[in-house]
Design a protein that fits this description.
Layout lengths: L2 H4 L3 H15 L4 H4 L10 H14 L1 H11 L21 H21 L10 E4 L3 E4 H25 L23
Antiparallel strand pairs: 1-2
Helix pairs in contact: 2-6, 2-7, 4-5, 4-6, 5-7
Length: 179
């Protein structure tokens, strides 16, 4: 059995593009561009961040770890690289994310790593030594974190409209994050 076959977060990684397409596809800009104030991200911004991660973070760091081990730190990931770019139609961004994620997962599967490879070590530029297993678990958890962020930002858009039901909807007052 390869690592890809047994990867616990694989089911999340495979589904995230479909979840986002079902959730964000066709929404008006008022829902896609709502944020929590200066320095925070809208659902469209979160999608841009996920796209950038597929391009420059997750699989590139797997390859880097396999090639360099913990001798050479991963190149830093610019978590805000997407900020300030011209917005693209949501349909195009969703298609790009789905295509990039599918390619990442196919390339990861082609590495034919096994479960023992989960202990292989790399060096994160901030955290120091990390394992491949930690990196892979973070990939799927990162998706879940941003799905929760999108839900929170969209719920907060309704904060003033829901009246007293706000007492039953803690998502509206949940902590804000910029990433």
């Amino acid at each position: 059995m390869t690592l890809f076959d047994s990867l616990p977060g694989r089911c999340v990684l495979e589904r995230t593009p479909d979840v986002l397409t079902a959730w964000l596809g066709g929404l008006p800009d008022a829902w896609l561009d709502v944020d929590e104030g200066p320095g925070t991200w809208s659902p469209r911004s979160v999608l841009g961040h996920l796209i950038e991660g597929e391009r420059t973070d997750w699989l590139p760091r797997v390859r880097h770890l396999l090639e360099h081990g913990d001798r050479v730190a991963f190149p830093p990931f610019d978590r805000s690289a997407h900020v300030g770019r011209a917005p693209v139609p949501i349909h195009d961004a969703l298609e790009e994310f789905a295509r990039l994620r599918e390619r990442s997962l196919a390339e990861f599967a082609a590495l034919r790593l096994d479960v023992a490879d989960m202990d292989r070590r790399g060096r994160h530029p901030e955290f120091g030594v990390v394992t491949l297993g930690q990196h892979l678990a973070t990939w799927s958890t990162h998706d879940l974190s941003h799905l929760a962020q999108i839900a929170r930002v969209m719920a907060r858009r309704q904060a003033h409209a829901i009246g007293p039901w706000r007492a039953y909807l803690p998502i509206v007052d949940a902590g804000r994050t910029t990433r």
